[in-house]
Amino acid sequence: MSRNRRRRGLALVIVFLAIGTAIIVGSCNVDDHLIGPCVHTYMDAVIHVEDVRDRDSGDPVETVFISAATVDARPILLEWLAKEKNASGVGLVGDSLKCTVPCAFGTLGGHWALTLSASGYPEQTVEFDARYAVFHGGCPSWNDDGTNVSLELAQDP
User: How big is the CA angle at 131 (ends 126 and 135), to the nearest 5 degrees?
Assistant: First the structure.
C-alpha cells in the first residue's frame, strides 16, 4: 500500500510540474525569435538632454546640476536616476545629479520639471514632456526611443 501511495504522490508531483510548465510557457510570446517571461524592459532612457544653452547668448552650457526632479508633480529620487541601467553622462555629486551634456536618464513618461543650476547660473526650473516613441507589448514588452530635449538657462531669470 505504501508503494501505491508513493506512486500516486509521484504522479501528482508530475502533474503539478506539467501544469506549472504549461502556465510558464503559455505566458511567453514568440515574436521575432524572442521568448521570455512577462517582464517590461526600458531599452532607452526617456530623457536625452542633447543641448543646454544660455537663453540670451546661445552659448553652450556643458555641465548642469539637477537638484530636484518631478514627473507629473511626483518627486523622483535623484539617486534612482543616476543608477538606472540606461542612464548616461550623469552621476551624483552631493545632493545633486550632475549632467555632463549630452546626458540621458529616467524611465517614466510624463510632464517633467527639473530644478537646474550651472556655474554662473542660479537655480531655475525647466519643464517639458517626455515620452517613449516605441512601445512593444506582449511578453516580454519594452519601451524604446526616448525624448530629446534642448534646455535653456538664464543668468538672470
Answer: 170
For the segment(s) 40-153, the CATH number from 1.10.357, 2.60.40, 1.20.120, 2.102.10 is 2.60.40
pLDDT in tens, 33-73: 455 578 888 889 999 999 999 999 999 999 999 999 999 99
The DSSP letter of residue 38 is: S
Q: Are strands 147-153 and 47-54 parallel, antiparallel or unpaired?
A: parallel
What does the DSSP 8-state code read for residue 45? Answer: -
Contacts of 68 (CB under 8 A, 6+ apart): 75, 78, 113, 114, 115
First to last CA, the chain: 87
